[in-house]
Amino acid sequence: MKKIYLSEVDSTNLYAKSNIENLADKSIVHAANQTAGRGRLQRTWVNLGEGNLFLTFVLKPSNSFNEVYSNLTQYLSVVLCKILEEYGLKPQIKWPNDVLINGKKIAGILSETVMQGSLFKGLVLGIGVNLNTSEKDLASIIDKEATSLNLEISKSVDVNLFLDKLAEEFFADYDNFLQKGFELIKNDYISRTCFLDTEICVQVFNDKKCGIAKAINDKGELVMSNNQKEFVLTIGDIL
Ligand code: BTN
Questions:
Q1: How far apart are CA 51 and CA 59, in angstroms?
Q2: How far is the C-alpha of 193 from the C-alpha of 199, rounded, in Å?
């Protein structure tokens, strides 16, 4: 696995996309600071500064897109949960791939597909994890409830050790995951989800879908029901 370290970059995902031709499959791009971090659904990812993790996996599994690639964010959320559990924490997954501790977001994951015309070039799978942040910074910089690993375990975290562990655990089952798909992690994923069997609303682009969160199906999609009618969501943000 090739590692690229940048002291500052606009976004590790953008860097990986722009350099995809020159980056080997399974490389990782790590930055100490991101000046224009990208989040899901056109949002930004705040730079909490050095000491936090800004990482992108560069993945070139084949020459054409496969459905299972859409589930890699969920695979990564499970990998992260298992690492956080080693610290004695009880992380939860908010569909599709936010990782929370006690209801507060500790990490965000963003996968982007890289195309050149109609040619599939690969995926850049980015993850930001709050590892060393003060409560004051979290409250003043982030508008939603958030937390950081150092606050949860009351000691500072070594970013490089955390990164090495995350990359090692990610690649340990990655090839197997590509073969088997979401079903490989379905139980691990579901056992950590919050919101199942509760009434929720999901923002889907400009639309809001409300109902009971019934299940996660074999494709990792959210099955909901409203007035006895079932519907399936593939993308969205639980409000
Ligand atoms: C989210 O909205 O929750 C996803 C946030 C993803 C942030 C990470 S930080 C590393 C990588 N580079 C980016 O610009 N975004 C992702």
A1: 25
A2: 14
Q: Is the CB of 96 under 6 A from ligand 1?
A: no
- Pairing between β-strand 199-204 and β-strand 207-216 as defined by DSSP bridges: antiparallel
Q: Report the alpha-carbon distance of residue 20 to residue 17 in Å, rounded.
A: 5
Instruction: Answer yes or no: pTM beyond 0.85.
Output: yes
Q: How far is the CA of 36 from the centre of ligand 1 (A)?
A: 10
- How many other C-beta atoms can be found within 10 angstroms of the C-beta atom of residue 214? 15
Q: Is 127 in the pocket of ligand 1 (CB under 6 A)?
A: yes
Using one digit for the tens of pLDDT, what is the confidence trace for 28-70? Answer: 999 999 999 999 888 889 898 899 999 999 999 999 999 999 9
Neighbours of 119 (CB within 10 A): 9
3-state SS class at 231: strand
Token pair, residue 132, equals 């060393």
Give the pLDDT score at 203.
93
Q: How far is the CA of 229 from the centre of ligand 1 (A)?
A: 34
Distance CA 200, CA 68 (A): 26
In the chain, the percentage of residues whose pLDDT exceeds 70 is: 100
